[in-house]
Write a structure and sequence with these properties.
This protein is mainly α and 174 residues long. Helix 2 crosses helix 4, helix 3 packs antiparallel against helix 4 and helix 4 runs antiparallel to helix 5. The longest helix has 33 residues. It is elongated and about 65 Å long.
């Protein structure tokens, strides 16, 4: 990505780097996070999603006890795996927020989109774990696995994307 940016700079000078620089640097989202960063960030997000899911399931009237990343429902156990922490959604949402911010053409708009992409991903994953807990309790653990679990993930990603789009429309001039 940096090499490509350098080539753009060499090819067209500062005017080309100014016009195409953001587009080229946007490619940074295709580079995976280093494991040294991914592990602690994933664990922090796992903790946050576990705590918020515990509170959300309790607000739905179910008895839940949390031990670390494990949620104990009466007769059932849910684990908030690192895949459900939201780290992948945050990466996608940061990329989409950057795109929407760049399209908006306003640096403050871009910053607002970037800042809110992280809590939106946490909310979406909390919703996913809460739905999984409710489905496990009311329909049984077999319903919360396999295809339905994948569909939950897709639904929560779509909810997160809808929230990002709404934020982009709500705050066009911020």
């Amino acid at each position: 990505v940096l090499l490509l940016f350098g080539l753009v700079w060499c090819w067209g000078g500062q005017p080309a780097a100014g016009k195409l620089g953001a587009v080229v640097l946007f490619l940074i989202f295709m580079v995976p996070l280093p494991f040294v960063w991914q592990q602690p960030v994933g664990e922090l997000l796992q903790h946050i999603v576990s705590v918020t899911s515990d509170a959300a399931i309790s607000m739905c009237g179910l008895s839940v006890h949390r031990e670390g990343y494990i949620l104990h429902l009466p007769g059932h156990v849910l684990e908030v795996a690192q895949g459900c922490s939201g780290i992948r959604q945050i990466t996608v949402f940061l990329g989409i927020s950057t795109f929407l911010g760049l399209v908006g053409g306003n640096k403050v708009h871009c910053a607002v989109m970037l800042i809110f992409s992280i809590p939106i991903a946490v909310v979406a994953n909390t919703l996913r774990i809460t739905m999984t807990g409710l489905i496990t309790w009311y329909l049984g653990p077999a319903w919360a696995q396999g295809v339905l679990h994948d569909v939950e993930g897709l639904i929560t990603v779509l909810i997160g994307l809808t929230l990002l789009w709404w934020l982009s429309r709500w705050c066009p001039d911020c």
